[in-house]
């Protein structure tokens, strides 16, 4: 006898506030602005930022974005890219629902 699996659809995560996204980008930029310590602090901030991104945006968008966010924070001299804020506008205007 073949059993049917039921799939439950999870509701889409609500869009985070723009102010939250700007604050997250400022935290990432702050680690870059501290001379000599900045790039070393990315060892801690990059995975944390990727995890926060995944929890914030969720779904496929969050999974792909968290990897890109992790890479952006981990690679040298890329901390100035406001990945949370860019993702906010992408999610709001192009990836609705």
Main features:
97 residues; mainly alpha; 4 helices; globular
Furnish the topology, listing elements before pairings.
Elements: H1 18-33, H2 38-57, H3 59-74, H4 83-93
Helix pairs in contact: 1-2, 1-4, 2-3, 3-4
Describe the structure.
- The chain is mainly alpha-helical and about 100 residues long.
- The protein is about 65% helix and about 0% strand.
- The chain is built from 4 helices and no strands.
- Helix 1 (about 20-35) runs antiparallel to helix 4 (about 85-95), helix 2 packs antiparallel against helix 3 (about 60-75) and helix 3 (about 60-75) packs antiparallel against helix 4.
- The radius of gyration is 16 Å and the shape is globular.
- The chain starts with 17 loop residues before the first helix and ends with a helix.
């Amino acid at each position: 006898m073949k059993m049917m699996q039921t799939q439950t659809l999870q509701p889409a995560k609500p869009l985070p506030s723009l102010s939250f996204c700007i604050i997250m980008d400022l935290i990432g930029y702050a680690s870059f602005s501290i001379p000599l310590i900045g790039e070393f602090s990315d060892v801690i901030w990059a995975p944390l930022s990727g995890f926060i991104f995944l929890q914030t945006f969720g779904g496929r968008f969050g999974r792909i974005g968290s990897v890109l966010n992790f890479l952006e924070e981990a690679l040298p001299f890329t901390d100035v890219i406001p990945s949370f804020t860019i993702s906010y506008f992408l999610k709001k205007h192009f990836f609705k629902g």
